[in-house]
Amino acid sequence: MKFGIVTFPGSNCDYDAFHAVTDVLGEEATYLWHKDHDLQGSDVIVLPGGFSYGDYLRAGAIARFSPIMQEIISHAKSGGPVLGICNGFQIACEAGLLPGALMRNSHLQFVSAEVRIRVENADTMFTNLYECGDILKMPVAHGDGRFVAPVAVLDALEAEGRVIFRYADAGGNISADANPNGSERNIAGVISEGGNVLGMMPHPERACSPLLGSSDGVRLLESILARVAA
Amino acid sequence: MAQFRIAVHITPRKGLLDPQGNAVRDALRTLGFDGVKEVHVGRYIIVETDAYDAVSAEETVADMCKKLLANPVTEDFEIESSVHA
After folding, report:
1. How far is CA B48 from each of CA A12, A58, B4, B8, B11, rounded to the nearest angstrom?
2. Span A65-93, pLDDT tens digits
3. What angle is formed at CA A77 by the lines to CA A75 and CA A78, rounded to 5 degrees?
4. Given an 8 Å threshold on Cβ–Cβ distance, is B74 in contact with A103?
5. Which residues 6+ apart lie within 8 Å of A45 measured at CB?
6. Does A108 touch chain B (CB under 8 A)?
7. A141 in Cβ contact with A201 (< 8 Å)
8. Which terminus of chain A has a smaller tally of CB atoms within 10 A, N or C?
9. What domains sit in chain A, N to C, each tagged with a CATH number?
10. Tens digits of per-residue pLDDT, A8-65?
11. A107 in contact with B at a CB cutoff of 8 Å?
12. B68, closest residue in chain A (CA to CA)
């Protein structure tokens, strides 16, 4: 399977994603430049973390109009898998691939920390190798990670099982203390209506080796492989 | 065609948590401005564009706000003025 990893000016997790896909997962990956118009036959698109276009205007607002994004929006609309991590989540929201928006962290600090997230739905193409309720350890590094959406949208996301990850403590409790950025209802990751676009603030690609403190992100990538290759 | 200069305010939507506004409000209170009730921090954008008249210039900028300058989920925009540039 081929993963296309997008490099925008200011992306800085594209190499981590490449390493996770090629060295850990053992699959093929290629970088897709933001000015390209071609996904080069990629089966899965990764929108990586970073600060595309310097976060000018709003995080993800300018990246959403880059040439490669038009191809990615078509890919997503026809059911192709897209994984948006951190800045990639912000871009996916700005592009309308996911509902809601990511706003400045409620405490106004950039947060670089290891957090725990609880798997809320294990029946997706990104989480099928986890169990519902699993607690995963992953890093976060962001200034604009507070997920917000109108109450009706939040209720619909919950009702449709589209909240995929929630910030939790080590015991799996959803609390304000476990919420690193003030996200509504501790939401750390949501999926599109079609189930093929996942956006999340924590970094699974940086949780792929015990040497780095966690390998809990590996199963997310393996889940995609299991589902898409099937 | 004439050139117009349009100023637009973009502000956090009312009712949404505005931590930046709250931080500035608290700092103002610390400075002794006890009467401060609320502060909101937004953006002020100036666009210069060609248009036939002021009305169409404002319509164009409203369209820009909907498509890029403001986030429809979290922000409101208000066109302050348009003048011949």
Report:
1. 34, 21, 6, 11, 20
2. 999 999 999 999 999 999 999 999 999 99
3. 65
4. yes
5. A3, A4, A5, A6, A32, A39, A72, A75, A76, A80, A81, A82, A83
6. yes
7. no
8. C
9. 2-229 (3.40.50.880)
10. 999 999 999 999 999 999 999 999 999 999 999 999 999 999 999 999 999 999 999 9
11. yes
12. A61
The backbone torsions φ and ψ at residue A67, rounded to the nearest 5 degrees and listed phi first, read -55, -45
Spatial CB neighbours of A12, under 8 Å, sequence gap ≥ 6: A48, A49, A50, A51
Inter-chain touch B71–A58, beta carbons under 8 Å = yes
Could you give the domains of chain B?
Answer: 2-84 (3.30.1280.10)
Tokens 């191809």: give the residue. A71
Q: Which residues of A touch B19 (CB under 8 A)?
A: 104-108, 182
Residue type, A207: A
pLDDT (tens digit per residue) in A153-179: 999 999 999 999 999 999 999 999 999
Q: What is the pTM of this model?
A: 0.93
Distance from CA of A170 to the nearest CA of B (A): 27
What pLDDT digit, counting tens, does each position of B20-53 carry? 899 999 999 999 999 999 999 999 999 999 999 9
Radius of gyration, CA atoms only, chain A = 16
Query: Residue A181 and residue A19: Cα distance in Å, rounded?
Result: 28
d(CA A136, CA A172): 10
Q: What is the ipTM score, two decimals?
A: 0.81
